[in-house]
From TrEMBL:
Subunit structure: Homodimer.
Catalyzed reaction equations: L-histidinol phosphate + 2-oxoglutarate = 3-(imidazol-4-yl)-2-oxopropyl phosphate + L-glutamate
Family: Belongs to the class-II pyridoxal-phosphate-dependent aminotransferase family. Histidinol-phosphate aminotransferase subfamily.
Pathway: Amino-acid biosynthesis; L-histidine biosynthesis; L-histidine from 5-phospho-alpha-D-ribose 1-diphosphate: step 7/9; Lipid metabolism
Keyword Amino-acid biosynthesis recorded: yes
Protein known as: Histidinol-phosphate aminotransferase
Domain Aminotransferase class I/classII large: 49-347
Keywords: Amino-acid biosynthesis, Aminotransferase, Histidine biosynthesis, Pyridoxal phosphate, Transferase
InterPro entries: Aminotrans_II_pyridoxalP_BS, Aminotransferase_I/II_large, HisP_aminotrans, PyrdxlP-dep_Trfase, PyrdxlP-dep_Trfase_major, PyrdxlP-dep_Trfase_small
Length: 356
């Protein structure tokens, strides 16, 4: 187990001293017949179901159910309004504006940089290598006394590949700040989750989401898994009722559908392989990055023109052709068999017209 990590030394001074807001539902737990403590509307809601009472601020029932699925205890689980809330809290907890910095490894998820800018925190970019792996020497050289966070997305967005586990472990062992491993796409990968390693690495924060494999993107529920001490920091900073009651109820019900989700994952992986094999046969397709996610990054001829052509047909993909190390690439999310077939037909038609 890593011995050199000091959470207290990393925290911003104001966060270390912060006395969190104590809500009515923090001060009273249990059942009661008359609730007159939170200035709620006692008459109900103008809706078929009453939502006049504040929700559980720590989402105990939801975390208990996630424990059954993820194997991470509730005291090591934070639930946020998407993973983006957890990312923002990490900056606010550990990074002193205009003084501290974080390390990003592009091409990667763009919200890390956006959150850094919002919080006035400097970021150092250490590009991935040509095969989209970590540049360990470059990261080591970029770390200084004010480096508080390193963000690693694995499987990576927008490239789709998994980052080598040994390289991530090397950073966890040698970096005394917080290492954030974003596993938004882990359900589509054969790589094991780092949630199994939380006891070994006290400086580890693992991000996951219910927006991808679980099909609950509209509900905006993200997860952060870490030591109980780090989760306590998250809970100090978050708004009192950051996950609304309707979301808690719907997600709790949806979490009964593990078998359905597993079937969707198998179908997505099978379609990912089929789409890859079909695209690589096109002479205009130059390279497809092997993917462990629910999308593929494809380098091809005339990407911008193809993107516009597909948009005109109502087929929306992601243009990544101007992203460093993704030049000439479009990103295709894996759809249903019918959607994938429609897109393939459109791509073939586009290149047929171009060739003529």
């Amino acid at each position: 187990m890593k011995e050199s990590f000091s959470l207290d030394a990393l925290l911003r001074d104001n966060i270390r001293k912060l006395v969190p807001y104590s809500s009515a539902r923090d001060e009273f737990k249990g059942e009661a017949s008359v609730l007159l403590d939170a200035n709620e509307n006692a008459f109900g809601s103008p809706y078929s179901k009453n939502y006049n009472r504040y929700p559980d601020p720590l989402q105990h029932s939801l975390k208990d159910k996630l424990y059954e699925i993820k194997g991470v205890p509730p005291e090591q689980t934070f639930l946020g309004n998407g993973s983006d809330e957890a990312i923002d809290i990490l900056f606010r907890a550990f990074c002193e504006p205009a003084r501290d910095n974080v390390i990003l490894v592009p091409p990667t998820y763009g919200m890390y940089e956006v959150s850094a800018n919002i919080n006035n925190v400097a970021y150092k970019k250490v590009n991935l290598t040509a095969d989209y792996q970590l540049d360990l020497d470059g990261i080591a050289a970029a770390i200084d006394a004010h480096t508080k966070l390193i963000f690693i997305c694995s499987p990576n967005n927008p490239t789709g590949n998994s980052i080598r586990r040994q390289d991530m472990e090397t950073i966890l062992v040698n970096f005394d700040g917080v290492v954030v491993i974003d596993e938004a796409y882990i359900n589509f990968s054969k790589q094991p989750s780092f949630t199994k390693d939380l006891q070994e690495f006290p400086n580890l924060v693992v991000l996951q989401t219910l927006s991808k494999a679980w099909g609950l993107a509209a509900l905006r529920l993200g997860m952060a898994f870490a030591s109980p001490e780090i989760i306590n920091v998250f809970n100090k900073i978050k708004p009192p009722y950051n996950i609304n009651q309707a979301t808690q109820e719907i997600v709790l019900d949806a979490l009964q559908g593990v078998a359905q989700v597993n079937d969707w994952i198998k179908s997505t992986v099978a379609e990912r392989e089929a789409l890859t094999q079909a695209l690589i046969k096109l002479p205009q397709v130059q390279h497809i990055t092997p993917s462990d996610a629910n999308f593929i990054l494809v380098k091809l001829e005339e990407p911008r023109a193809l993107y516009t052509y597909l948009v005109d047909l109502g087929i929306i993909v992601r243009d990544r052709s101007k992203v460093e190390l993704c030049e000439g690439c479009l990103r295709f999310t894996i759809g249903t068999p019918a959607e994938n077939a429609l897109m393939l037909k459109a791509i073939a038609a586009f290149y047929s017209v171009v060739e003529d």
